[in-house]
Design brief:
CATH superfamily of the largest domain: Glycosidases
Largest sheet: 7 strands, antiparallel
Shape: globular
CATH class of the largest domain: Alpha Beta
Distance between the termini: 79 Å
Length: 550
């Protein structure tokens, strides 16, 4: 009996060893090796079992050995375009593979001298509605993050890593210094820091023992600085290289707000190559507009001007391509990165990839989880033309309303304004004369009843483009049905830029222009608008005006 148990245990062990969710061949592959990655869809959550096509959305981690920041990403989420498409492993119905050739570094286009610690990836079906993953945790080959992202470790026995400055750019005041630091994986016999100010690398610091090195650099002007660290560990020569863009912050220019400009993106009807961005931000020191138009870099010319009353910031951008979606943010005081609170479209790096192209065609590709929620502007677009019947529309008597409260996601599997239009005849047969939409302003995530709002001028993309919402309202009116919009002006959630701009100790700061620091009332839900503040009153007027006039 003992022999049988041993055999069964051995068989179970063999099955466990070979039934691995992800495998990188050869074992112990490094950045300069050719490698094959195999994904077994029969393991993990099994969402991709039986799939006829599997994609690998993938990149690399270069900042630290246990990092999670994606770089050099390959793939377009939700698109069946061949980029990152895997092939079946011969003889296996649910195993898929992809080859990194001529080597991992060249495949991803990572420059020499930049460490590659991990491969980051997500396995998906063509439209991105399903993905293969495992439970969060550490595994022998790597780890799974809380959001299901997969990280496969590469062989990095000896390495040197630049630990400061972090990121790829920074703001400094005139005369301010920049600390450069690097660490090695083991004791060195030599380690050096070099900097390149445009004329080649110059040695700045050297140590002959230990595992770390530092150097204090003083920039005299804005510069794209090259940083290189070389080291020798047990006779092996190593190096790490990075580019770091330094912008010398200038005093904020004081200038009156141009006539006719208001909060948000202002379009010039005579020149679609221009847009003026305006942000209300009292008590802030300096702000840069950053986005697709600046290649997501801080640039001196994109420092926003401040009005004489120290409340509004504005900037006119030129050279804009008409009818192109530009994703952008405001970077405030070198610390905070927010979307435009008055944006009419939000770019969400976590949730947009789950919105089907049949619901919202042409969403801009924005995957910067390191930057967070962003905003979108597009110049030169035609305004929606309302049917002539709108001029004759008469709303029902408010004393005789028969209201159907409707949540689009629960009402329709497709959760789209477009399909909602097709249900008007059904709703009319019920004998109603008003539809109250549960909140459709941009809320947190995709799957919600909408009472966690964050952007009040943006129709939530999970239901479709705003013009489809207008078409639904127009069709309802043509059938004698009023549409009521629940705007949720009592509170907002933490994704709101107006919450984030003035936030301290886990709650709105005492100087927040719009929100109470402490919730007023017995029940707390989100962050409480201060309706006694003139800023809040003006904001609510703007919201109501937008939804009534747009």
């Amino acid at each position: 009996m003992r022999h049988i148990s041993t055999i069964l245990f051995f068989f179970s062990l063999v099955v466990t060893i070979h039934a691995q969710f992800v495998t990188l061949n050869p074992t112990g592959a490094g950045s300069d090796d050719t490698a094959v990655l195999i994904f077994d869809a029969e393991q993990g959550n099994k969402e991709l079992m039986g799939a006829t096509k599997v994609y690998m959305h993938h990149g690399v981690v270069t900042d630290k050995i246990n990092g999670t920041a994606w770089k050099y990403v390959k793939g377009n989420w939700g698109k069946d375009d061949g980029i990152g498409e895997m092939t079946k492993v011969p003889g296996h119905a649910n195993k898929w593979q992809i080859t990194f050739t001529p080597n991992i570094r060249a495949y991803f286009g990572v420059p020499a001298g930049e460490n590659i610690f991990r491969i980051s990836c997500v396995f998906r079906n063509p439209d991105g509605t399903k993905k293969g993953t495992l439970n969060q945790g550490e595994y022998g080959w790597g780890s799974i993050a809380s959001n299901g992202d997969i990280y496969i470790n590469l062989n990095n026995d000896n390495y040197v890593s630049i630990t400061a400055p972090t990121g790829t750019e920074g703001l400094v005041s005139q005369g301010q210094t920049l600390q450069i630091q690097a660490d090695a994986s083991a004791n060195v016999s030599q380690m050096k820091i070099w900097v390149d100010e445009g004329s080649g690398y110059v040695e700045k610091s050297v140590v002959t023992s230990g595992k770390s090195i530092s150097y204090t650099y003083t920039p005299v002007s804005s510069i794209s600085l090259g940083i290189k660290v070389t080291a020798i560990i047990n006779g092996q020569s190593l190096e790490a290289i990075k580019k770091y863009d330094i912008v010398i912050k200038k005093p904020t220019e004081i200038a009156p707000l141009p006539v006719g400009m208001k909060s948000g993106a202002n379009y010039d009807p005579t020149d679609p190559t221009k847009v003026t961005l305006v942000l209300l931000a009292p008590e802030k020191d300096f702000i840069y507009a950053v986005g697709d138009f600046s290649e997501w870099k801080v640039k001196e010319e994109n420092q926003m001007k401040r009005t004489p009353d120290n409340k509004m910031y504005w900037l006119t951008l030129t050279g804009i391509t008409p009818q192109k979606s530009y994703v952008y943010q405001y970077w405030i005081d070198g610390k905070l990165k927010i979307a435009d609170p008055y944006t009419e479209q939000v770019a969400d790096p976590w949730n947009d990839k789950y919105i089907e192209s049949t619901v919202f065609p042409g969403l801009p590709s924005y995957t910067r989880e390191d930057l967070g929620i962003a905003s979108v502007f597009k110049t030169g677009t035609a305004k929606y033309t309302w049917a002539s019947s709108e001029a004759e529309w008469k709303k029902p008597d408010v004393n005789h309303l028969v209201i159907y409260e409707l949540h689009i996601r629960d009402f329709l599997a497709s959760h789209s304004y477009k399909d909602l239009i097709d249900t008007i005849s059904y709703l009319k047969r019920l004998g109603i004369n008003a539809i109250e939409l549960m909140p459709v302003s941009e809320f947190e995530g995709n799957d919600s009843w909408g009472y966690n709002p964050s952007f009040y001028f943006a129709a939530d993309k999970y239901y479709g483009p705003k013009d489809q919402l207008k078409k639904f309202i127009e069709t309802a009116h043509q059938n004698g049905i009023a549409v009521i919009n629940d705007l949720v002006l009592n509170h907002a959630f933490g994704q709101s830029p107006m919450v984030q701009m003035y936030f301290d100790g886990g709650k709105p700061a005492a100087n927040n222009p719009w929100f109470n620091r402490e919730y007023v009332g017995q029940y707390q839900w989100g962050y409480d608008f201060n309706h006694e503040s003139q800023y809040t009153k003006n904001f609510i007027d703007d919201v109501n005006r937008y939804w009534l006039e747009e």
